[in-house]
Amino acid sequence: MTATAAVGEETAEPVREREHGAAAARWACAVLAPALLVALTASVCLGSSQVPLGEVWSAVARGVSGGDPVPGTQDLIVWQLRVPRALLAAVVGAGLGLVGTAVQALVRNPLADPYLLGISSGASLGAVAAIVLGAGAGGLLGLGLSSAAFAGALASFALVWAMARRGGGFSPLRLVLAGVGIGQFLSGFTHYLVLQAGDDQQTHGVLFWLMGSLGGAQWSGLALPAAAVLLALAALLARARALNALLMGDETAASLGVEVARLRRELFVVTSVLTGVLVSVSGAIGFVGLMVPHACRMVVGGDHRRLLPVAALFGAVLLVVVDLVARTALPDQELPVGVVTALIGAPTLLYLLDQRLEKA
Amino acid sequence: MRPRAWCGVLAAVALSATACGGGESKKSDDAGAAANAKTGFPVSVSDCSGAKTTFDAAPKRIVTSNAAALELLMWLGAGDKVAGTGFPPGKGTVPQQFADRAAKVPVLGKKVIPKEKLLGSGADLYVDSFSSMKNMGGMGMAPTAEEFKGAGISHVYLKSTACASMSKAARTDLSGVEADIEELGRVTGTSARAAELVAGMRKKTDAVRDALKDVPEAKRPSYFFFDYDAGTKQPMAVCNRQVANAVITQAGARNVFGDCAGDFKPVDWESVVAKNPDWIQLGVRNRGSEEANRKAFDEAADFLRTFPATKDLKAVKEGHFLRIGSERTTIGGVRSADTVREIAHTVHPDRVK
């Protein structure tokens, strides 16, 4: 597989290249960390309604200090809607960047994305079932939309696991085929349910959610995805060297002391749980998990010790910006986040690719 | 050769024979013309884009796209001609006097009627509440104009609903709904009944208008139609081309999304909170029973009371909720006038009794 070889070459780097990668990673973090702060600030200051800048900061200060909100709508808009939404965008973006990087290593395929393993199809089925069968916020079987989505993610995780472990290997091909097959199977049910929606508006609402939306962000819903992203980051960083070895092929990794099958199992659990959590809070936001690892690899190289944190940071910046565009691009309506990620992400990826080819 | 083609040949033969009858045919033509003059045929109607369809006689077998079109035909007294419907009425959703008849109407599709079933229904008229461009998400399921023609089915739209998204101007009164009723009355030969229905609607809406005539625009309460079943993560705004905008405006309230052009548009909660409406309608879809509807209204109200961004809104704090179902607000029909009256009575209790 040429792509694998290319990634392998990137990780089997000589000393000078490794030093260059480390410097590039420091530079990337130095740029991305302030960029994230700027993006978060812009996201809190701008929106579909006009809130004077001074009022925005007063509302944030009152929120942070736990002071009583000022009567009226400005505190509600800034502290209950914009701030949690901006933070959720950052968390989900970071999570998608991480999980995309991990899945690409797990199945040794640069075209892999977080949704390849079928987990998001289960989550989407759960969410759509909650909207169509449970109607509104009432949910399905007493589950809210997010819980139903997570239950769907776990169910598809169990199915893919059962299929992939037969033969004992969790081989990349088996994982991908099981994920794609079960994902397609569950997507069929999802599409059937979409057609069962009561009417045009309900269908529209379901499709909007399927294309990704951070509109349901609340303070109470931030802790779980944030914890999941942090835990996944820690778990993946702890396995960063093993991930590097995995990209060189199973035999090479085994010769370096990596228990390949066990590592794949662990990666599958981490990526599945994180994908389930992310899809349950934001729908299936496409492209970020596919594009971010590539963009970051072009800048900092393929060493996962650097790639993972940079991908998380870049994913966070990207999704905060994308969500801001989705909320403000059109005067009287909101765009699905997935539409904007594709419109912004694809040209960005192509530009980076072009630059890289020119350098080469 | 298909049966329909044989019918065509036989009809042509029959027509030729009649034409050869000389003086006899002249007499029957005169009689036909007199009958048509009495019933108002031929009748021409247009679709959303202005294309005309002409009817020389009232239809004998009608298929309706959904419960709203079916109900309208029942109001017009043409319910016995309905040979099938899509989106059938849920339990308890049609007025009591039509319930038995509505239950007997064959269901050709639980949602959009499949193309084959519609074309093979034997109907000579299809009354459509949906625009062919959107077709309720059932892309490609709607027959083309040629297919309708080939099957001998004339196609009319209830334009107040079907053409809303293509409409050029805001809808602030029920004239579009009334025009639909009158047009369907002309097509089905029930113009007199249509005129009665429209007069009854106008009586109600005129009474509301008169009671509120000295309430200036700025003093009218702001109003948000909360489409609970379209999902709570992404609120769906009712914009100014939608029938609901006309209902809300005629009831003496100001739709908070009255400045947005179109029928429905996804917005963010920020837009809703910024408007801080005086009143919120809990627009839930009919669940088929009083108890289930009450539960759905309660759920919608509970969501607004517990969602941090909405719990402190004026309408939520004051409990200014209207428990009026979605269908009779967003789908035009005879009962739209009752919805106008109900909203007006709730938001202007001292003026509209």
Automatic annotation (TrEMBL), chain A:
Keywords: Cell membrane, Membrane, Transmembrane, Transmembrane helix, Transport. It comes from Streptomyces syringium. Its main location: membrane. This is Iron complex transport system permease protein. It is a multi-pass membrane protein. It holds the Pfam family FecCD. It comes from the Bacteria. It is found in: Cell membrane. Belongs to the binding-protein-dependent transport system permease family. FecCD subfamily. The chain crosses the membrane at residues 27-49, 86-107, 114-135, 141-163, 175-194, 206-238, 267-292, 307-326, 335-353. InterPro entries: ABC_BtuC-like, ABC_transptr_permease_BtuC.
Automatic annotation (TrEMBL), chain B:
This is Iron complex transport system substrate-binding protein. The keyword Isomerase does not apply. The keyword Signal applies. Gene3D superfamilies: Nitrogenase molybdenum iron protein domain. Residues 1-19 form the signal peptide. InterPro entries: ABC_Transporter_SBP (IPR050902), ABC_transptr_periplasmic_BD (IPR002491). Belongs to the bacterial solute-binding protein 8 family. It comes from Streptomyces syringium. Keywords: Signal. It comes from the Bacteria. Residues 61-351 form the Fe/B12 periplasmic-binding domain.
